[in-house]
């Protein structure tokens, strides 16, 4: 295969250098270390891998991680949509401040978020004391932490799409006699849907692997409130590298699949909105 | 959303067929802000409230602990190494990806994104598998007296891993949008490649770059899970500030823990302020398509 | 001109940052002690004592670096290359694991220092809320309906393994040494556990600071310490009819001290633990000294209550056996936590 078919000719220099450097760095920092994990897991043999993967405690932890991440991402999708909408469409005092605050979970270290959430949602905390049920140290606590870290993904994915949204479509819909709720449901929501899905997937992907903010507030009870990353830590602490790498590999494959899906969704979104980059 | 069915032509603007009723607007705003307060604002506030619980003097006493000071120095050191490395990578990768068309580009993009969705625990663990005493290169490193994990190099590697995508992900969409015509013009006027990059490309993306650096720096200083696995938690030696927060918390030193946490939260807030100023002032020059 | 501002900012960043992290003063020798979770306060004081001693003896300054965490987790770090000069862990099998995996210290390390290399011992007691509202007197009260028990995770915490074994010993004693009945008792006990933290300190925080649970299964020293940290008026200690003699051992990691050139300091450090001053400090921090007669403040010793204690060797055939049987992969603890049991 000649080079010309590998890349489209360009007048700009530096492709070889930057492409080579980027791949070298990618290989050293990402591929080699992750490859090491997968290789280690692979050396265990299929039988042992299946045995580890089907261990009820590991399965339960994966279920907790995935189930709660899905729920958290779903809640974030709903409120993220509302937030993105009010931030782009309405004017209210402090709008700029609220807009900036949405990024808080990106900027706030996860451990800080973890101890803060644990402190306020504990039975004797500010919010925990007001609630008739326990939040911290139950699966609900994990859910709260996952909502916290996932929120900006949905808002930040939707905002640019909402800004770009063609108002003429809404006007046309209104001119044709559609009432506002109908326009929202039939015209706006379908246009936003792919971006919403991307935001949802990003929030979900982030939540599945989250550790720092969760361990402070999760009860870490096996089968109930133990998350998959904690299983990896536990296996490491028990000197069981095989099991640790096996669970890590499962999670890696899922992350990779999710990312691929997100990139495909993004491409789809761009096409639907008529942006050809 | 049945509330929208009621039309109420009051409020600051007249009800129009292309916007919601004032009542619906209010409802949505209250819902959105309430959610934000419950999940984001109150926790942030709690950090400072707990830190200052016993007064300002006690708060500042927390920073006289030599171990906490060492943790602050180490955190700065790790970020000072990891962030420039990511700047170099981010510039190189975005040049290759944004300015050229080649096969396998989306695969490369997916790989760059991977650290976003890899669990921090796995990010730290993969270096243990490589460089730990029972890992692939462990025996060789041990023979040559090189310490990677449980030392600064391991902390830097784990931090580079988790902050890997930030700079590249800010630059790529913007550079793609800007296309190659300006660079081509510079080249045709006789500038060489480096000069073109320094005087045409870099100024065009400078704010997006700064933005990426900010985010990457915030993450580098705040990372917990990945560095926790490779740190060894030696007080005053391999504890970064987030790890020190956990240690103080477990020492029953809650005020000091929240004081250290408030420093990190303050860093996060400063990041947000600069970021918002950048967006406000140079919004057009930072791609509107970024998502992080 | 704004055009190169970004570049200049970046340059400034890379120049300023290293200045801000000016290296701490070097030229003092260091010693690294990798320890378990509840020894934080003890070694904070002890390290200062040792530094003073070392200065008096050799004229050199020394700084002791400590790391604390669940005992199993700490052992893992040393196996993975954490450069520990001495390890002071919660139980012998964790140091056995280091010896076995790395060969950095001999298999018979435990014979090198007096009293199974344990300069202090402790035991497992109950911490309950003031006034003992649930009327907890002994182990069988823990499995009464509505009682919530807090203990860390035996897989990662040394203290939790002592908790578990103490409960098992009670189960054996109550049921004519029938292991199946002991297992049923421990299984029932763990059904009353709502939270499993990874280390002893995490569990104490959960119980004392977060207000969860009715009983904390705790190291005796950790229980006394909670009075100091959270006030005398919040908790009470209940001594069960039977508990276990917990021996947290200490050892030099030979290969590491030889590499670091710190053998002399490491030996002096561990020996100081057995000295009257070391013993007094251990007693002050609520560890039972192995030479109580040498403790300077007699009140520190007299406050320890005498309890009926079983030992790991007599009841469980030693740590090597207990570790694999109860806490290994698929061991009794794993079986107990299977759903439906």
Automatic annotation (TrEMBL), chain A:
Membrane topology: Multi-pass membrane protein
Assembly notes: The complex is composed of two ATP-binding proteins (CysA), two transmembrane proteins (CysT and CysW) and a solute-binding protein (CysP).
Pfam families named in the record: BPD_transp_1 (PF00528)
Main localization category: membrane
Subcellular location: Cell membrane
Single GO MF descriptor: ABC-type sulfate transporter activity
Gene Ontology CC: plasma membrane
Keyword Transmembrane included in the entry's annotation: yes
Keyword Membrane (UniProt): yes
Family: Belongs to the binding-protein-dependent transport system permease family. CysTW subfamily.
Organism annotation: Methylopila turkensis
Cross-referenced SUPFAM superfamilies: MetI-like
ABC transmembrane type-1 domain ranges (all copies): 62-262
Function in brief: Part of the ABC transporter complex CysAWTP (TC 3.A.1.6.1) involved in sulfate/thiosulfate import. Probably responsible for the translocation of the substrate across the membrane.
Sequence intervals crossing the membrane: 20-43, 64-86, 106-123, 135-155, 184-204, 211-234, 246-265
Keywords: Membrane, Sulfate transport, Transmembrane, Transmembrane helix, Transport
Protein's name according to its UniProt entry: Sulfate transport system permease protein CysT
UniProtKB/TrEMBL annotation, chain B:
Keyword field: Cell inner membrane, Cell membrane, Membrane, Sulfate transport, Transmembrane, Transmembrane helix, Transport
Membrane topology: Multi-pass membrane protein
Location of the ABC transmembrane type-1 domain: 72-275
Positions of transmembrane segments: 26-49, 70-98, 118-141, 148-168, 252-274
Keyword Transmembrane helix found: yes
Gene3D superfamilies referenced in this protein's UniProt entry, alphabetically: MetI-like (1.10.3720.10)
Primary role: Part of the ABC transporter complex CysAWTP (TC 3.A.1.6.1) involved in sulfate/thiosulfate import. Probably responsible for the translocation of the substrate across the membrane.
Subunit structure of this chain's protein: The complex is composed of two ATP-binding proteins (CysA), two transmembrane proteins (CysT and CysW) and a solute-binding protein (CysP).
PANTHER family (alphabetical): SULFATE TRANSPORT SYSTEM PERMEASE PROTEIN, SULFATE TRANSPORT SYSTEM PERMEASE PROTEIN CYSW
Entries under InterPro entries matching the protein: CysW_permease (IPR011866), MetI-like (IPR000515), MetI-like_sf (IPR035906), Sulph_transpt2 (IPR005667)
Pfam families: BPD_transp_1
Database matches in PROSITE patterns: ABC_TM1
Source species, domain of life: Bacteria
Location within or outside the cell: Cell inner membrane
Molecular functions (GO terms): ABC-type sulfate transporter activity
GO CC entries: plasma membrane
Designated name of the protein: Sulfate transport system permease protein CysW
Automatic annotation (TrEMBL), chain C:
InterPro entries: Sulphate/thiosulphate_BS (IPR034408), Thiosulph/SO4-bd (IPR005669)
Gene Ontology MF annotations: molecular carrier activity; sulfur compound binding
A Pfam family reported for this protein in Swiss-Prot or TrEMBL: SBP_bac_11
Keywords of the record: Periplasm, Signal, Transport
Signal peptide segment: 1-22
Recorded superkingdom: Bacteria
Swiss-Prot/TrEMBL GO biological process terms: sulfate transmembrane transport
GO cellular component, one term: periplasmic space
Compartmental location: Periplasm
Assigned protein family: Belongs to the prokaryotic sulfate-binding protein family.
Designated name of the protein: Sulfate transporter subunit
């Amino acid at each position: 295969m000649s080079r010309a078919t590998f890349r489209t000719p360009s007048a700009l220099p530096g492709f070889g250098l930057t492409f080579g450097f980027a791949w070298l760095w990618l290989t050293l920092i990402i591929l080699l270390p992750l490859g090491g994990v997968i290789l280690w897991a692979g050396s265990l043999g299929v039988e042992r891998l299946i045995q580890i993967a089907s261990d009820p405690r590991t399965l339960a932890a994966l279920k907790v991680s995935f189930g709660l991440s899905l729920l958290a991402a779903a809640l974030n999708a709903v409120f993220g949509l509302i937030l993105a909408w009010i931030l782009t469409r309405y004017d209210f005092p402090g709008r700029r401040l609220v807009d900036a605050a949405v990024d808080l979970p990106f900027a706030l270290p996860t451990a800080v978020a973890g101890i803060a959430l644990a402190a306020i949602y504990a039975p004797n905390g500010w919010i925990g004391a007001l609630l008739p049920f326990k939040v911290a140290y139950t699966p609900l606590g994990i859910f709260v932490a996952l909502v916290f870290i996932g929120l900006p993904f949905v808002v930040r994915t939707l905002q640019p799409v909402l800004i770009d949204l063609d108002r003429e479509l809404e006007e046309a819909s209104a001119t044709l006699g559609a009432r506002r709720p109908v326009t929202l449901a039939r015209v706006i929501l379908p246009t936003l849907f792919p971006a919403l899905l991307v935001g949802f997937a990003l929030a979900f992907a982030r939540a599945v692997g989250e550790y720092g903010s969760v361990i402070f507030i999760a009860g870490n009870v096996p089968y109930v409130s133990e998350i998959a990353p904690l299983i990896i830590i536990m296996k490491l602490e028990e000197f069981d590298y095989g099991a640790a790498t096996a669970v890590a590999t499962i999670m890696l494959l899922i992350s990779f699949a999710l990312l691929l899906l997100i990139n495909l969704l993004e491409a789809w979104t761009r096409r639907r909105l008529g942006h050809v980059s | 959303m049945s509330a929208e069915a009621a039309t109420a032509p009051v409020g600051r603007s007249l009800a129009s067929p292309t916007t919601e009723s004032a009542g619906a607007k209010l409802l949505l705003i209250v819902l959105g802000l309430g959610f934000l307060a419950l999940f984001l604002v109150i926790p942030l506030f709690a950090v400072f409230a707990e830190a200052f619980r016993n007064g300002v003097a006690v708060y500042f006493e927390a920073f006289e602990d030599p171990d906490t000071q060492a943790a602050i120095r180490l955190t700065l050191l790790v970020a000072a190494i990891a962030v420039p490395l990511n700047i170099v990578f981010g510039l190189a990768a975005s040049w290759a990806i944004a300015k050229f068309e080649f096969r396998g580009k989306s695969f490369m993009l997916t790989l760059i994104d991977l650290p976003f969705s890899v669990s921090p625990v796995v990010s730290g663990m993969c270096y243990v598998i490589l460089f730990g005493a029972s890992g692939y290169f462990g025996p060789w490193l041990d023979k040559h007296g090189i310490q990677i994990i449980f030392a600064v190099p391991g902390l830097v590697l784990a931090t580079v891993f988790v902050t890997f995508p930030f700079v590249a992900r800010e630059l790529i969409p913007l550079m793609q949008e800007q296309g190659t015509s300006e660079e081509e013009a510079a080249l045709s006027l006789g500038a060489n490649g480096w000069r073109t990059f320094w005087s045409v490309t870099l100024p065009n993306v400078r704010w997006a770059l700064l933005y990426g650096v900010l985010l990457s720096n915030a993450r580098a200083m705040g990372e917990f899970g990945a560095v926790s696995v490779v740190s060894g938690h030696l007080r005053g030696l391999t504890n970064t500030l987030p790890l020190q927060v956990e240690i103080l918390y477990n020492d029953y030193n809650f005020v000091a823990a929240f004081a250290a946490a408030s420093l990190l939260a303050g860093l996060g807030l400063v990041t947000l302020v600069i970021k918002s100023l950048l967006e406000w002032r140079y919004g057009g020059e930072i791609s509107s398509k970024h998502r992080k | 001109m704004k055009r190169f501002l970004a570049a200049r900012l970046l340059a400034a960043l890379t120049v300023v940052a290293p200045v801000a992290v000016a290296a701490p003063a070097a030229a003092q020798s260091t010693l690294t002690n990798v320890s378990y979770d509840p020894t934080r306060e003890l070694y904070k004081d002890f390290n200062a004592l040792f530094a003073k001693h070392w200065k008096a003896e050799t004229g050199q300054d020394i700084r002791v670096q400590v790391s604390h965490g669940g005992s199993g987790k700490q052992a893992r770090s040393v196996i993975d290359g954490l450069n520990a000069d001495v390890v002071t862990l919660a139980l012998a099998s964790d140091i056995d694991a280091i010896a076995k995996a790395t060969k950095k210290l001999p298999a018979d390390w435990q014979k090198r220092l007096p009293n199974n290399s344990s300069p202090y011992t402790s035991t497992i007691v109950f911490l309950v809320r003031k006034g003992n509202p649930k009327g907890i007197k002994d182990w069988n009260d823990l499995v009464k309906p509505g009682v919530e028990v807090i203990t860390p995770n035996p897989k990662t915490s040394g203290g939790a393994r002592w908790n578990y074994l103490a409960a098992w010993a009670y189960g054996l004693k109550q049921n004519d040494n029938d292991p199946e009945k002991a297992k049923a008792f421990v299984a029932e006990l763990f059904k009353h556990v709502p939270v499993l933290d990874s280390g002893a300190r995490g569990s104490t925080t959960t119980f004392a600071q977060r207000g969860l649970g009715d009983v904390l299964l705790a190291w005796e020293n950790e229980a006394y310490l909670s009075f100091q940290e959270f006030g005398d008026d919040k908790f009470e200690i209940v001594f069960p009819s039977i508990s276990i003699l917990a021996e947290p051992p200490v050892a030099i990691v030979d290969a590491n001290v030889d590499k670091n050139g710190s053998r002399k300091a490491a030996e002096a450090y561990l020996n100081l633990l057995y000295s009257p001053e070391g013993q007094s400090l251990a007693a002050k921090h609520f560890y039972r000294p192995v030479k109580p007669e040498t403790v300077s403040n007699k009140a520190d010793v007299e406050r320890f209550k005498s309890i009926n204690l079983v030992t790991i060797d007599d009841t469980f055939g030693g740590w090597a056996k207990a570790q694999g049987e109860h806490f290994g992969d698929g061991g009794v603890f794993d079986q107990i936590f299977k759903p439906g049991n």
